C-alpha cells in the first residue's frame, strides 16, 4: 500500500510540474492556416522566454489580447507568428513584408501575399510585431485592435502539435 501511495504522489507532483511549464491549447480560428488549423491541439511552453531575451523571428506565440472573449469572460488568447522584435522597422507594400529593408521569405503563408500598407513602422521596446499565416483573415499587429504585443502578455511559445494524430510535429 505504501508503494501505491508513493507512486500516486510522484505522479501528482509530475502532473503539477508539467502544468506549470506546459499549457495545452486548442486552435479556435483559421488565422494560422496553412501551419495550424482549427481544432489542432498544441502544447505551449510557458517558460520559453524565461531565459531568452526576446521571442525570435518565426516563433509561434500565444498571447493575451485586449479583445474580449465571445463568452465575455476575460481577454481572448491569440496565436500568431513573430515577424518583428523591438527596434525592427516593418514595411508592407505590394503584398510583401519587409523587415529592416529586407523582403521576408515566408513560405508558411497561406496565399503568399500580405494585404495592407505599412511604412517605416518601428517596433517599440519590449514589443513584438505578429501576424497570422493566413493573412487575409488574420487579426494581428496590422490592426489597431491588436497592435504590437507586449512581451509581458505572451503566455508562451507553441512547440508541438499533438492532434490530429496523423499531423503530430514540432513547430
Give a short summary of the structure.
One of its GO terms (molecular function) is signal peptidase activity. Belongs to the peptidase S26 family. The protein is mainly beta and 171 residues long.
Largest β-sheet summary: 8 strands, antiparallel
Helix/strand structural class: mainly beta
**Overall strand count:** 12
CATH class: Mainly Beta
Count of separate structural domains:
1
Categorize the overall geometry.
elongated
Could you say what the CATH architecture is? Ribbon
**CATH overall fold name:** Umud Fragment, subunit A
Bin the strand percentage: 35-45%
Percent helix among the residues? Answer: 10-25%
Give the distance, in angstroms, between the N- and C-terminal Cα atoms: 42 Å
Count the helices. How many? 2
What is the average of the pLDDT values?
A: 92
State the CATH superfamily name: Umud Fragment, subunit A
Instruction: Give the low-confidence spans.
Output: none
Order of helices and strands: HEEHEEEEEEEEEE
Radius of gyration: 18 Å
Domain Peptidase S26: 2-162
Protein name: Signal peptidase I
Transmembrane segments: 7-26
Subcellular location: Cell membrane; Membrane
Amino acid at each position: 500500500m505504501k508503494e501505491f501511495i508513493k507512486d500516486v504522489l510522484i505522479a501528482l507532483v509530475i502532473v503539477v510540474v508539467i502544468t506549470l511549464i506546459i499549457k495545452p491549447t486548442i486552435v479556435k480560428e483559421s488565422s494560422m492556416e496553412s501551419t495550424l488549423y482549427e481544432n489542432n491541439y498544441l502544447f505551449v511552453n510557458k517558460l520559453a522566454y524565461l531565459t531568452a531575451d526576446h521571442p525570435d523571428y518565426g516563433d509561434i506565440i500565444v498571447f493575451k489580447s485586449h479583445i474580449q472573449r465571445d463568452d465575455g469572460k476575460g481577454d481572448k488568447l491569440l496565436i500568431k507568428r513573430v515577424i518583428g522584435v523591438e527596434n525592427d522597422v516593418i514595411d508592407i507594400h505590394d503584398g510583401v513584408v519587409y523587415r529592416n529593408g529586407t523582403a521576408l521569405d515566408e513560405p508558411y503563408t497561406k496565399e503568399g501575399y500580405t494585404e495592407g500598407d505599412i511604412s517605416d513602422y518601428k517596433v517599440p521596446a519590449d514589443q513584438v510585431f505578429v501576424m497570422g499565416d493566413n493573412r487575409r483573415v488574420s487579426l494581428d499587429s496590422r490592426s489597431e485592435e491588436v497592435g504590437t504585443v507586449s512581451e509581458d502578455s505572451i503566455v508562451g511559445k507553441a512547440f508541438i502539435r499533438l492532434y490530429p494524430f496523423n499531423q503530430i510535429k514540432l513547430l
